[in-house]
Fold:
Amino acid sequence: MIMPSEWNRHSATQLQWPSAQSKWNAERLIKVEELYCRFIEELHFFEPIHLFVDDLEMRNHVMQRLSGRAVDLDRITVHQKEMGCAWARDCGSVFMKHGSEFVIYDFDPEEHPSIDMNGSHSDYLAEKSGLKKVIGELILRNNWLDSNGAGALLVLESPMLEHNKANGFSKPEIEQKLKKEMRCEDIFWVKSGSDDVELPARWLNVDTVMITLNDNVDEDGASDSQENVKVLKSAALEKGKKLNVETLKQAAVEKNDEPEDTGLHSVLGSYTGFYIANGAVFTPKFKQEEDTVAVELFKRYFPGRKIIGIDCTDLAMVKGSFRRISLPFFSSKMRRLS
Structure:
């Protein structure tokens, strides 16, 4: 099995509408919903969308929100299934390519009942699509991993190690199992300070990574940021080719006048939260000068795709990103799920 890269051809994208039961304040929820509407409006021109909603009431609410948009509803399949959060990348299924077919990778929920976030989701997709479900030894989450599709993985260190300690796996053992189960030749561990939900590094192509850089030494995560740059700039792929490394400063998102449940009054926006769709790259904007630098970088690395920048300030305030709210499907069996 091998994990596909995000730039591989998608059959569709999964999104999960944010619930009114979330701890976000009402004004923030409205603003995030507006971003979802804009994202759906743009994304559905490039690939079908599978949108998960909690219940009939939410379904009707979503249809009302989309009614004033240039959206072809035939391109959107709504699934009335509660997911528990808005983060499709966190709790969605992990897909692997096995030969010419795709499979759903999962761990045994009976072995880890306290952390089973995607078991019911993977069962649901397996039933709807007919894809085979493979049970592995490791606990994996999409938001901890980024693949170049050619045997190299970026791995978010803290949650990967923490969640697999229950199995008694050490870091070298996890590496060994990743190489065995996912046919990985190269594994690059990255750190993210106190943020265990967003990868601070992403692949731009098979041998180029982009790293977000926090150069404020007084802020949490700055030392990890510098270490990531140092490690990846000195790293090489299995065949001896050095990694190309692009760096972008994190954006200092304006102070939030209405503190969220997280207690955050301000956050750092990360440009690694971009999403690669079939014909486009969705890049977050934060009303900063670095926005332009990010757009130009993506134009250079994805010349065949439309670069679509959208203000993600409100999404960043709740630790969200385009990458975190979206999950690509790759199998043609998942284009339409009845």
Summary: Residues 12-329 form a domain with the L-arginine/glycine Amidinotransferase; Chain A fold (CATH 3.75.10.10).
